[in-house]
Specification:
alpha+beta; Glutaredoxin; 2 domains; five-stranded mixed β-sheet; 7 helices; 14% strand; elongated; binds FE2/S2 (inorganic) cluster
Length: 150
C-alpha cells in the first residue's frame, strides 16, 4: 500500500512524463530511482494513467532485469552470464559468490543483492562483474567479497 508521500511522488513522476512519446519505460525508471524498486502498488496507477492494462505494465517490469520488484540491498553485485565470460569461468565465479553470500540470483543476503547481467562490455577480460556500479575484470570470488565487505 502506497503512503501519501509515495502517492504524491508518483503523481509528480507521472506529471513529469505527461505528453512524452512512449512514456512507460521512462516512468518505470523514474519510479525505480525514486523508490529503489518498482512497487506492485504503482502498476495499476501507471496503467490507468497510460490507459493500458496492468498486465502490460507488469510484462515490461518483469521483462527487463534492471527493474526490481523488491528493494535491493546496500550493495549490488552483478555477474556477467554471457558467453565470453562463461568461457572464462563465470559459472564457477557465480557459484562461488552464491555460496559465499548464501543466496541465489535476484536474492539479497544481508546487505548484498546478487543479479545476473548479460555482457558488461569486458568480454576480453572475463569473467566480469559489476559491484555497486564499478566494473571488475578477470575477477574472482575473493575480490568481489572484499569489495562488498570493505
Ligand atoms: S560476455 Fe561478459 S562482459 Fe561481455
Amino acid at each position: 500500500m502506497l503512503d501519501s508521500v509515495a502517492i504524491s511522488r508518483l503523481d509528480e513522476i507521472l506529471a513529469e512524463h505527461q505528453g512524452l512519446e512512449g512514456p512507460l519505460l521512462p516512468i518505470l525508471h523514474s519510479v525505480q530511482a525514486a523508490f529503489g524498486h518498482v512497487p506492485q502498488d504503482v502498476l495499476p496507477v501507471i496503467a490507468k494513467h497510460l490507459n493500458i492494462s496492468k498486465a502490460e505494465v507488469h510484462g515490461v517490469v518483469s521483462f527487463y532485469h534492471d527493474f526490481r520488484e523488491v528493494p535491493a540491498g546496500q550493495h549490488v553485485v552483478k555477474i556477467c552470464r554471457a558467453e565470453a565470460c562463461q568461457a572464462m569461468g563465470a559459472d564457477r565465479l557465480a557459484q562461488g559468490v552464491q555460496k559465499a553470500l548464501g543466496c541465489d540470483w535476484h536474492e539479497t543476503a544481508g546487505d548484498v543483492t546478487l543479479e545476473p547481467v548479460f555482457c558488461l562490455g569486458l568480454c576480453a577480460c572475463g569473467p566480469a562483474a559489476m559491484v555497486d556500479g564499478q566494473l571488475m575484470a578477470r575477477v574472482g570470488v575473493d575480490a568481489i567479497m572484499a569489495k562488498v565487505r570493505a
